[in-house]
Amino acid sequence: MEKNNNTMHANPFAGTGKVFSYSLKQMLTAKGWLISTLLMAALLLIGIPLTVLIVGKAAGRDEGKKNETAVRTVYVADETAGTADYSALKEAGKYPDVNYIACGSMEEASAAAEKDSHAVVLRVTKPEDIYKLTVYLPEGTEVSRSKASSFGSFAAENFSALLMQKADLTPEETELLSMHVVTETAGISADADEKEDEKNDILTQIIMLIVPFMVVMTVYMMVILYGQSMANSVMLEKTSKLMETILTAVHPVALMTGKLLATACSAVIQTLIWMLAAAGGIIGALIAAVFSFSDMAGLADSAAFADAGSAEKITQLMESMGGSFPPISVSGIFITLIVVALGFLLYLSVATLSGAMASKQEDLNKTLAIFTMMLLMSMLLCLRFEVNEVSGELGLISEAKWLRFFPFTALLVLPADLIFGKLSAPEICLALLSMAAAVLLMIWLAAAVYKLLVLYRGNPPKLRQLISMLRGKKDEKAGS
User: For residue 367, which of 215, 234, 344, 357 is within the disulfide window of CB 3.0 to 4.6 Å?
Assistant: First the structure.
C-alpha cells in the first residue's frame, strides 16, 4: 500500500484533470453563480440599449418642448444709420430657421409681432457711441424670456457681420474681415507635427487616463470576489470527513492546482458571457441611438447623416467612435490574457493559502487578512496621480518600471501597457517569467500548508510558527 501511494505521489500533478473537471462542474451548476451571471448579462444586454433609448426619448421630448417655445420669427426695427440684411444671421448656424422681417418703426414691428405667437421684436439703436440690441416680447407670445434672452445674446455675438453690411464694404473686404485666425505651437523637428497632434488630442489623453484605471478596478473586484470564494471553499473542504481519503488518492499539489484552475476557468467563462452581453448591449445602444437621436444635431457631423439609412448611420457612428481611440496592439491583447490568467492564479493561490490555514469560519476571517492586505497594498502601490514630463499626459497608474516585474502588481499595471503597446519584448518576457515563477511557488506553498494543517485544529498558526512547522516537516523527510 505504501508503494502504491509513493508511486501515485511521484507526480504531484497526477489527478489534476479529475479535480479540475469535478470542481468546475460544481461551480458552474451552483445557483449563486448562475443567477449572478445571467442577471448581469441580462442587465448589460437589455439595460444599455434601454437606457440609451429612454434618454433619447426624454431628450426628444425636451427638444420638442424647446421647439414649442422657440423663436421662429424676428421683426427687426433698426433705428441706426445704414442698411443690413438680418437674414445673414442664419449663416451663424444656431438659428438657421428663424425668419427676419424688416419693419420701418417700432410700432409697426410690435403690431406685426402680436399676431405671431412665436415672434419677438429686435430693436436696434445707437445711443451715443455704442449699438444697443433690445429683444421685446409681445403680449400673448409663447416665447419664454430665457429663449428671448438667448436669441439676444446670439444676435449681439454675430452683430459684426451686420456692421460690415452697414459699412458698405465690398465682398472681398467683408470676407477678409470675417476670416478666422488660428494659432498653434509646434516644435522644429521632423516629427513635430505628429507629436503635437498626439499631445493636443484631448480625447486620446482621457482614454489613456481612464482605461488603465478601469482595468485595475475590474481586476481588483474579480480577485476580491473569487479569492474569498476560493478561500472559503478550501476551508470547508478541510472539515469534510472525506479529506483523509482524498489525500491518499490525490497529491495536495494536484488538488490545489485543479481547484485553482477550475475557479479561474469559471471566472473566465463568466467574464466572457458578460463581455458578449456588453457587446450586444453596445450594438443595441447604437441602434437605439439611431432611432432616438437621429434628429439631434449633436450626433450628425454632416447633412448626409440625417439622410442615410439606419445601417449607414450605425456604420458612421461606429467609425466615428473608433477614430477616437488611440492605437491598440493586437498582440498586446493576446499577451494581456496570459497576464490576467497568471495574475489571477497568483492571487487565488494566496487566497487558497489563507483557506488552508483556517479550520473554521472564525479563523478564515483572520487568515484572509493576508490575501486582502496583499491585494490592497498592491493596488495602492499602482494607483498614483502622475504627469509624464515628456509628453505631458496625465495618469492614474504609476509609471514605475519595477511594478511591471513584481508579480503581485504586474497583474494590475501590465494589461493597459500591453494593450497600448508601451512595453518591449524583453520586458514582456521578464514580466511573464516572474509571474509564472510566483504562481508555481505559491501553489506549492499552498499545497504544503494544506497538507500540513489538514488535520490541525485550533487557532491559526502565526507566520513564524508556520515556517517552523514547514521546516520541521522538511527535516523529517530528509531524515527518513
Answer: 357
Residues 276 and 219 occupy one common structural domain = yes
**What pLDDT does 474 receive?**
56
Based on the fold, state whether residues 224 and 142 are members of the same structural domain.
Answer: no
Q: Is the pLDDT of residue 69 over 80?
A: no
Task: Judge whether residue 46 has pLDDT over 70.
Answer: yes
Residue 325, domain extent: 12-55+200-479
Least confident of 155-164, 353-362, 464-473: 464-473
pTM value is 0.57
Establish if 3 belongs to a structural domain: no
Q: Which amino acid belongs to residue 386?
A: E
Q: Residue 64: inside a domain, yes or no? A: no
Regarding whether 166 and 247 lie in a shared domain, the answer is: no
Please tell me the total count of domains within the chain. 2
Q: Are residues 341 and 431 in the same domain?
A: yes
Is residue 126 domain-shared with residue 210, that is, in the same domain?
A: no
138 plus 272 within the same structural domain: no
Q: What's the chain look like in SS3?
A: CHHHHHHHCCCCCCCHHHHHHHHHHHHHCCHHHHHHHHHHHHHHHHHHHHHHHHHHHHHHHHHHHHHHCCCCEEEEEECCCCCCCHHHHHHHCCCCCCEEEEECCHHHHHHHHCCCCCEEEEEEECCCCCCEEEEECCCCCCCCHHHHHHHHHHHHHCHHHHHHHHCCCCHHHHHHHCCCCCCCCCCCCCCHHHHHHHHHCHHHHHHHHHHHHHHHHHHHHHHHHHHHHHHHHHHHHHCCCCHHHHHHHCCHHHHHHHHHHHHHHHHHHHHHHHHHHHHHHHHHHHHHHHHHHCCCCCCCCCHHHHHCCHHHHHHHHHHHHHCCCCCCCHHHHHHHHHHHHHHHHHHHHHHHHHHHCCCCHHHHHHHHHHHHHHHHHHHHHHEEEEECCCCCCEEEECCCCHHHHCHHHHHHHHHHHHHCCCCCHHHHHHHHHHHHHHHHHHHHHHHHHHHHHCCCCCCCCCHHHHHHHHHHHHHHHHHC
